[in-house]
Structures are given as structure tokens and as C-alpha cells.
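ARCHIVE CARD
Drawer: 12
Card no.: 0347
Subject: one protein chain, sequence and derived structure
Cross-reference: see card 0346
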Amino acid sequence: MSQSESEGENFLAQHPRMMGVLFMLLVLLTQFGGTAAAISSGNPGP
């Protein structure tokens, strides 16, 4: 696989809008992780 493109690169080349979808998914998951960490640290439990 020295000069051949990977399957992911081929898929994104054929479906360029998926790159934006994957980026937004990454952003949403990043924000959700920070929110979940803030909520769990604010509630010490029983």
C-alpha cells in the first residue's frame, strides 16, 4: 500500500459531502464529552 489510496480516501473522494458530516459528528461528540464530564463532576453521587 505504498502508493495506492486507502478505502476511506476512495470513499471520501466519491462522496465529498461525507467529509462535512464526519467533521460535524466529531465536533458534536467533542462537545458532548465535555458536557458529560461537567455533569458527572458536579454530582458526587449518593
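Annotation on reverse: The chain has a mean pLDDT of 81. The CA atoms of residues 15 and 32 lie 26 Å apart.
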